[in-house]
Amino acid sequence: MNHHFLRAAGTALLPLTLAACMAPTPFVDRNIGKVATDMRNAQIMHPGADRNMAPPLGLDGPAAKAGYDQYVKSFKAPEKNANTFLIGVGR
After folding, report:
1. Number of domains into which the chain is organized
2. What residues have CB less than 8 Å from 41, skipping those under 6 apart?
3. Residue 37 in 3-state DSSP?
4. For residue 67, what are the contacts with CB-CB under 8 A and spacing of at least 6?
5. 23-80 per-position pLDDT tens digit
6. What is the pTM of this model?
7. For residue 59, what are the contacts with CB-CB under 8 A and spacing of at least 6?
């Protein structure tokens, strides 16, 4: 057979062969954005929290302020390490 004919036939049949292996796009088109929506919804701990008008349980005002002040203070004066090779050893 003619070498050019085989090359032309192979070139013509290659796209058809690859197209037969492709997944159908309606499934992808139908579910586009679903993963992002599911991830966002999974991060919401209490979906109905905006309708709950009961006061939250936890610390009172002065205790919360003292905790926050201690937190801020920890950044102003960080703990000094004399030896950097002692990574938390002996505390």
Report:
1. 1
2. 47
3. helix
4. 59
5. 666 666 777 788 888 888 888 888 888 888 888 788 888 999 999 999 998 888 666 6
6. 0.29
7. 67
Residue 51 lies in a domain: yes
Does the pLDDT value for residue 84 go beyond 90?
no
How many Å apart are CA 12 and CA 85, to the nearest integer? Answer: 68
Q: Is residue 27 part of a domain?
A: yes
Domain residue limits at 54: 3-58
| Count of positions (residues) in the chain | 91
Contact between 59 and 67 under an 8 Å Cβ cutoff? The reply is: yes
Is the pLDDT confidence value at 11 over 80? Answer: yes
- Give the per-residue pLDDT at 41: 85
Q: Please state the three-class secondary structure of the chain as a single string.
A: CCHHHHHHHHHHHHHHHHHHCCCCHHHHHHCCCHHHHHHHHHCCCCCCHHHCCCCCCCCCHHHHHHHHHHHHHHHHCCCCCCCCCCCCCCC
